[in-house]
User: What shape does this take?
Amino acid sequence: MILDNEIKAQLEQYLQLMEGEVHINLSVGADDVSRDMTALVEELAAMSPKIQVEKTTLDRTPSFSINRIGENTGITFAGIPLGHEFTSLVLALLQVSGRAPKVDQKLINQIKNIKGNYRFETYASLSCHNCPDVVQAFNVMSLLNPSITHTMIDGAAFKEEVESKNIMAVPTVHLNGEFFSSGRMSLEEILAKLGNTPDASEFANKDPFDVLIVGGGPAGASAAVYAARKGIRTGIVADRFGGQILDTLGIENFISVNYTEGPKLAASLEEHVKEYDVDIMNLQRARRIEKKDFIEVELENGAVLKSKTVILSTGARWRNAGVPGEEEFKNKGIAYCAHCDGPLFAGKHVAVIGGGNSGVEAAIDLAGIVKHVTLLARSVLRADPVLQDRVMSLPNVTIIQNAQIKEITGTDKVNGITYINCETNEEEHIELHGVFVQIGHVANTEWLEGTVELNKHGEIIIDKNGATNIPGVFAAGDCTDTPYKQIIVSMGSGAIAALGAFDYLIRH
Assistant: This one.
């Protein structure tokens, strides 16, 4: 039995929502994965009379495709879609059966209008919390357009294929056999990468806003809700709605919610904002702000948005190590998410750069997957004592403190790391297969230099009302000089900035 009783009980409820019959084509051999895949498919068929199974031969073995009767939808799973991909399996069954995907009609029309043949393959790991969004987006595209096919490939089940293609980060997507993208992408982002992007003309006739929010993370979403509830004209410009939390796995300190995951919280934030009359402009980045009669925000596509007040909530991003080899070997051994990419380094030697909580947590996670972890800290370990005790107890973790990284080495992929021992001033080199960079975050504020006042760390300086040095411009969240970078703090600061902006509107 592949599914435990609790999951089976939940799954049976979902399968009752199926509208029509689906046909599973199963391609298996005599290996362990094939046996488990056969057991899973048979369990699915036993739970619903609307699921029919037939053994056949597909491009990869083991794999199975999910189709309408008499019609190939192009949706294939090469590997067993459990773990984080279990939701992808459930949604594929429901959507192939006839239940409409929850996608805006505008996006549906864009997908249906795509011309040409597109064979997408997503290399994923079952522990990756970013992969399901990508898999589910391509599955929807396959379902809506007969010229598009999509296969999810579990890297652990197809190790030789993954290694032959030098895939060292997930999700990695190939299009017609060539590299297409790496990292989390929403359906909108995929379509934009295929050339379906709004140009400046779509923003030309927008009336000035009362409040324009730049950034769609927890701070921006909170600000949008608070502003919209005041009944004022509210807009939000987001590079990607959800921000950093889209790349966050477990969240256990969001008060009143014992446990959730970043993508789930991001979806809830967007759903909440859409309950109000907020003009959401997703996949747009700002490049300039200037105060005139209105405050003008110019986007990278050339459009200029006007507003009486602006709230900056652009968040932060992973800090790069900034050493030779890092840019060259990104996704070729350089990684930033131990949960996502760790399984690709099973049985290998990796290094983690960073002595704070993020670095130590990554080392602990990786120790259960890889052969050996070398943890390199710039000075001493700064992680919480409980984390330090845990990592020091692991037999396959070596801790090197006072290590200044000089270079990440390699040819076509990472093969080692060179560092300076700050105590002896000697240069040392470690041979390894991957490097995980975990050294904190940097504020997304470069585009504001010379306009909004920043501190030496590049953070926006704000007062108790979230106001910046420019009248009418407010800021909130991780891009500010607020000392604690936490989701709940960002949400609170977003509310403060929105209330501050509303008060400014009343007084001016």
In short: The domain at 5-193 is CATH 3.40.30.80 (Glutaredoxin).
